[in-house]
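Slide 14.
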Amino acid sequence: MTTTFPDGFLWGAATAGHQIEGNNVNSDWWAREQSMPGMELSGDACDSYHRYREDIALLADAGLTSYRFSLEWSRIEPVQGHVSRAELAHYRRMIECCFEHGVTPVVTLQHFTTPQWFAERGGWLAPDASERFQAYVAEATTILEGVEWVVTMNEPNMQAAIMTAMRRMQQAGGQWQSPTVEAEGEPEQQTHSDFLTYADPEIGQTFTAIHHAARAIVRERTGAKVGWTIAAGALTAVPGGEEKLLEIRYGKEDVYWEGSRGDDFVGVQAYSSQQVDARGLVPHPPHPDNTLVGTAYRPDALAMAVRHAWEVTGGVPVLITENGIATADDEQRIRYTREALEGLSGTMEDGVDVRGYLHWSLLDNFEWGHWEPTFGLIAIDRETFVRTPKPSLAWLGGVARLNALDTVGVTGA
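Slide 15: predicted structure.
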């Protein structure tokens, strides 16, 4: 059986600057890595700052048609008010490289990291945060000629969850740890916890206002479609957990889906599903198929997330901006992706407007405090930076070339 996708459907992979570029020394995350216990260092990362041409060529040669990457605000504006024209030119060369390879760039303006000076001034909750971000966005638009897809912010809801957790820890006199250190604990050690479970809805409203201001600038200065990306938990309630589910999901997701109304698209990012009971999130039970970050093998989470996004946004077109699995078993990665795409096609048959699928990630990269979780379609030797495409890259490229999913067989193109 073969499932076909619409003409012009985007097939690609995603990355984030801090996770692949290396030596992003002016960012808040670089500073955090140096000072927080339990965090590994990003260091040279994948050296993609210098090797982006090779990365884009590997993606294109495999048959993929789109590449989502981020601009690093801390490179472009390392000191408040001082814009680096050289860095803007660097990112414009990345865009041009995509065009040269027939690849559609999806450009993210802010992917988790901010300049250290911005963080020191209070970050997103500072009185002038929106003004500062708008000034950066205006500079970024000067290099976006021909770009059709622009993401203002990546997962503001996860950023808000981190901010909420930090506030609670400070109030309790605790010490901040890397979110990946907490999230990647052995499943049997996980308990009911509010760490990164809750996000203050008021922070969500603040992010929404900033996003809308940035959206207006992108629309005024470019012809691109503009939206933002949301981390989707694909949460479900066990009996007795219905009220808690609504509470958690509103602050963590729904305020952001609501903030997407009026956007040209919304980026859906889903990996797994989790249950909620009357106390909160239910830990993932131990299972052989659990991922390297301890989450359950749930490719159906993508379809669940897309349907929820479509419902809450009121029908904003969907772009899958991240979906993947942390695994060292590439056959499992292919199996997961196939099953996720089968579920995605079901949502489209039911009338959901989905414009493309971008896999996370193109490369095995730095996962916010850890190197062990491998999400990539391409392996990286961290000593030599040699890129080794995995069978999953050829497989997904084969799907892209056909613009169809053949449910028979699991080998690459």
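Speaker note: Residues 80 and 278 are 46 Å apart (CA to CA).
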